[in-house]
Amino acid sequence: MTQSTMTSNTVTPATRGAQRVDPAAAVARTTSHSSLQETWVQVLAMAWRALKKMRRKPEQFFDVLVQPLLFTAMFAFIFGGAISGSVSDYLPILIPGILAQTALTVCMATGVQLREDMDKGVFDRFKSLPIARIAPLAGPMIADLIRYGIASVLTLVTGLLIGYRPGGGVLGCVLGVALTVIAGWSLAWIFTWLGTMARSAQSVQGISMMIMFPLTFLSNAFVPAQTLPGWLEAFVKVNPVSHVVSAVRDLFNDGAVTAEVGWAVIGCAVVVAIFAPLAVRSYSRKM
Amino acid sequence: MADLSAVRAGSLVKNFGDFRAVDGVDLDVRQGEIFGVLGPNGAGKTTTLRMLATLLPIDGGHAEIFGVDVRREPHRIRQLVGVTGQYASVDEDLTARENLRLFARLQGLASVRAKTVAGDLLERFGLQEAADRPLSQFSGGMRRRLDLASSLITRPPLIFLDEPTTGLDPRTRGQMWDTIRELVTDGSTILLTTQYLDEADQLADRVAVIDRGRKVAEDTPDALKTQVGDSTLQLRLAEGSDTALAADVVRRLLREEPVLTPESGRMNIPLPDPNRAADVLIGLREAGLGISSVSVAKPTLDEVFLALTGHGADEPQTEAAR
């Protein structure tokens, strides 16, 4: 240690915590894993980071602002007459459908952004820190709740503007939006898992599109399932998106908490139970 | 506990496909020292460090940090080691202060404490003025300082520095060296990688030289340099064809083997003592051999390498897979 001690005497002595670093004490303090409470704090810290980034890059909100406006109006006026006879008759079917579609689009962005984020140097630091592996994944998803909220409310408001009058009243609408947000958050785990698996953000985008289109269009989001051929109807009926759409329809239009709501919630729970562990495992492996 | 090593690694192995990036490296870093891992690009320095930091799975061998097994208890290791990467691992979209607060919160510091620690570190690393500016306006040196500050939030007993000054200008480099020296006075142990012999020389108490995934030497910087002579006489002969004659003169006078460079008429001669340079020059004049340029230089990593491995540091490393 000859050289370094000699030179360090000439360096301005550090003016900070006088006590020296004690390796033995540090080893004694270590824990074998993050506790539940620590994990929660870490997830919130990561959510805080995601919120800061959102504030700095408002262009991220483009999809949640434009899509609800554009798609609601476009689909209502194009398909309204053909499917339901008139625009106003179609809106009770369409609005919950658009809600689900918009939520899925936001999910897709979650996966793409995670992939982009993971390529950055800061993820090296996240990996080197003693934090639960789920925190970097779950944090941004909590921040995304805001995006789901904005997208859902905007869709509903657009619907109201072009003549939608939900029979479920304010409470039904609030519950419907809440269910959409929960469903969006749950399905986002599929895309988060993709984000941890894929090689690049572009490939996440590509794969996500291939998942998103069948999930939304092969559901009852835009057309009644009965009008479809039998084999397609069978798929539409097990598609979790269909259950979410039906549940939101029941809440919006009738203010009724039906069995569909239960199925939608169970479906979301199953998706999270499968894909959250898969995502964490794949993220931990990519060290 | 005082006699424990900070890092004890044996026969570390890392394969990337068919390529064996790290091939049986042993390291023993003592508590409180600065240990340097010296080697050219692609030698396996960073890979070794990343394995020890739990950033890469260890394919073979074993490693302990303060007696904790790296493979079995990665979460404990992460609490003991602060890692500063080759490419600043800080969040480009946040400010310096936000970065430090985030890392502090992630490591369990309460909100108020996180703020205080962030403020202290910004001050200590001379970043207060830039604290709330976007990182895109930061210079390379500022980023490195922020990166190092981020590794010190919990005052870890062991700090990994991966090429801490690569790409920095000489002044910033000197400041970084001072900062690193201060850390050990706190009782921290430092494991750093570098491509520069002078950096290892300036900072490290002991140095391991890594080449093609293997450790080829381990010693104090002084001892390493003595192996190649304290300094080097670099000559360029007026006539390239005189090279063999000049080499004979050198061998006779110094009993040293001159190192011929690929350029015609150029040779590097290890000098046990800088004063012997005059002997060589006089010897060459007496033999009637003209010189077009001459200089005396400190030994470079390349020369240490040549002396230790028989090949230069800048030779392609790809054929190392064997």
Automatic annotation (TrEMBL), chain A:
Keyword line: Antibiotic resistance, Cell membrane, Membrane, Transmembrane, Transmembrane helix, Transport
ABC transmembrane type-2 domain boundaries: 59-286
Biased composition, class Polar residues, residue ranges: 1-13
Region: Disordered, residue numbers: 1-24
Localization, UniProt: Cell membrane; Membrane
GO-annotated molecular function: ABC-type transporter activity
Domain of life: Bacteria
A GO cellular component entry from the record: ATP-binding cassette (ABC) transporter complex
Any one biological process term the GO annotation gives: response to antibiotic
TM spans (from-to): 61-84, 90-112, 145-163, 169-194, 206-223, 261-280
Membrane topology value: Multi-pass membrane protein
Sequence similarity: Belongs to the ABC-2 integral membrane protein family.
Protein name: Transport permease protein
Automatic annotation (TrEMBL), chain B:
GO molecular function, one term: ATP hydrolysis activity
Top-level taxonomic group: Bacteria
SUPFAM superfamilies linked: P-loop containing nucleoside triphosphate hydrolases
PROSITE patterns per UniProt: ABC_TRANSPORTER_1 (PS00211), ABC_TRANSPORTER_2 (PS50893)
InterPro entries: AAA+_ATPase, ABC_transporter-like_ATP-bd, ABC_transporter-like_CS, ABC_transporter_ATP-binding, DrrA, P-loop_NTPase
This protein's GO CC annotations: plasma membrane
Membrane topology summary: Peripheral membrane protein
Name of the featured protein: ABC-2 type transport system ATP-binding protein
Gene3D superfamilies assigned to the protein according to its UniProt record, in alphabetical order: P-loop containing nucleotide triphosphate hydrolases
Keywords assigned: Antibiotic resistance, ATP-binding, Cell membrane, Membrane, Nucleotide-binding, Translocase, Transport
GO biological process: one example: response to antibiotic
Pfam families reported in the protein's UniProt record: ABC_tran
Compartment(s): Cell membrane
NCBIfam families documented for this protein: drrA (TIGR01188)
Family: Belongs to the ABC transporter superfamily. Drug exporter-1 (DrugE1) (TC 3.A.1.105) family.
Signal peptide: none
Keyword Nucleotide-binding recorded: yes
Coiled-coil segments on the chain, per record: none
